[in-house]
Fold this sequence. Notes:
The chain has 4 helices and 10 strands, in the order E-E-H-E-E-E-E-E-E-E-H-E-H-H. The protein is mainly beta. It has one domain. It is extended, with a radius of gyration of 26 Å. It starts with a strand and ends in a 15-residue tail after the last helix.
Amino acid sequence: MAETNRITGEGGCKDAVCIDAGRVYDSCSDKDCTEDLRVYFTAEDQAVIDSAISARAKSAEVITTYIDVETLPFNRGYYSCDLTFFFEVKVEVFASRTVPSSILNGLAVFSKKVILYGSEGNVQVFSSEYRENGRDPQEMPRRNMPRCVVQVAEPVVLNTRLVPVCDCPAEYTCTIPEALQTRYGAPFADPEDGKAVLVTLGIFSIVQLVRNVQMLVPVYDYCIPEHECAPTGDNPCDLFKKMCFPVDDFFPPQNAGSNCGCNRS
Length: 265
């Protein structure tokens, strides 16, 4: 139940309301250059890789991120965030100069660890929120740990190499979770011989430690929508008439200049 206190005076603020919200205790931004990540393929696609003469990664996207938060025993209030990123990499494979290229989707994995401050909490939290397969939806406890939130931009493909499997760095071999293998319809192959695709990705990320706290905030009014939902007509020409004319497509804007250091003197 929210508590409210009437605030007198001018300025438009009506109430001070106590809310339970997530507060960011600590955060960091990072720019990782992951060199020579092994791209895993299914057995059928791996056979295509083994017969290829060259390969080129066209794009990469983050499928999901596994996050684990643990306390640091000798540094109270600080937590270790273990992050494992799973990337789907689209690779163009060339078998010969006379055969058209093939597009294959593989999986690459990258792990990292960051340490952030998340304060301390020594209470158990109970909630009436429904949880599937719970013992009792209204008495399911959870530990009072901060929540790690990761924001990741679209990875940048920097380099691709096609090498023999024996040349793969040992530290980059890993086990793919079974839950992700169902996305590709078959288990991933890890042959002892043949060829492997290694990619170098640039990753921009922000990691935050968030903890739910009770805060007193000023309230001005309810968030009432100001616009009505306009119905969509059946006539496609009516919708086309509302579209703005794409001026930039016909008249490309000029370069406004850049300070990246690439300009010639």
